[in-house]
Amino acid sequence: MTVLRDLRARIAQIEGFSPERKAKICRTGWLAVDTALPGGGLLQGALHEIHSPDPADGAAMGFAARLIGRFQAQAPGQVLWTSCRADLFAPGLSAAGVDPARLLVARCRDSEELLYTFEEGLKSKALSAVFGEIGELDFALSRRLQLAASETGATLILLRPARFGGEPSAAVTRWRAESRPGGWALTLFRCRNGRPGHWRMPAKTGDQA
Fold first, then answer.
1. Alpha helices in the chain (DSSP H)
2. Which of 11-27 are b and which e, b meaning 16 or more Cβ less than 10 Å from the residue's Cβ?
3. Neighbours of 149 (CB within 10 A)
4. pLDDT (0 to 100) of residue 3
């Protein structure tokens, strides 16, 4: 048992988790969802992914916006949103509880520029979280991003197309969000030390599950 415990600790250190460092948690505010997560919320200083079956589906963006607001309320510092798109809807972000005064937006030209911005943002001690949209991301790159987030304590949340959900990733949690009649659906399909689950969510992101 000692050998197994030491091996797990070593793997955790390699993946960017230090057993000596007390984990910091950010609650989503939905009791049913937080109960499924280890520690009762999203681990800060880690990589999390949100997947959407359709880029035009607003459920994933709404979920991400809610998380931005939660991270802003809990931690000081700016939040960086990186994307190649130019249609970020400011009123929608405000309705989800996002403080525009603490939100930085970086519009990138391609995936290479996105990855560069992710890593540089994570290295900055002025940011509490980095949010971005990206498609293809191999395991080695995801692990590098996870390590960078762990080293500085800044959280990275990536929005990705659902077709990449079956590929390996170093993300601590992986979610799927999609619109449904009368609301939307949220699925936690991978969670390190947690319990995967599925929830039917109300139409308003601010409502409780």
1. 2-14, 31-36, 58-74, 90-95, 111-123, 139-152
2. eeeeebbeeeeeebebb
3. 28
4. 46
> Which conformational region is residue 16 in: left (phi greater than 0), alpha (psi within -120 to 50 degrees), or beta?
left
**Quick one: angle between helices 139-152 and 111-123, nearest 10?**
20
pLDDT tens-digit series, residues 71-100: 888 877 889 989 887 666 666 677 777 888
Gap between the Cα atoms of 66 and 75, Å rounded = 14
**Which residues pair with residue 160 across a beta bridge?**
51
DSSP class of 100: G
Is there a contact between 46 and 33 (Cβ–Cβ < 8 Å)? no
Q: What is the mean pLDDT of the chain?
A: 84
- Alpha-carbon distance of 19 to 203, in angstroms, equals 39
Tokens (6 digits) for 22: 């007390």
pLDDT at residue 124 is higher than 60: yes
CA distances from 33 to 13, 42, 170 (A): 27, 10, 21
Domains of the chain: 25-201 (3.40.50.300)
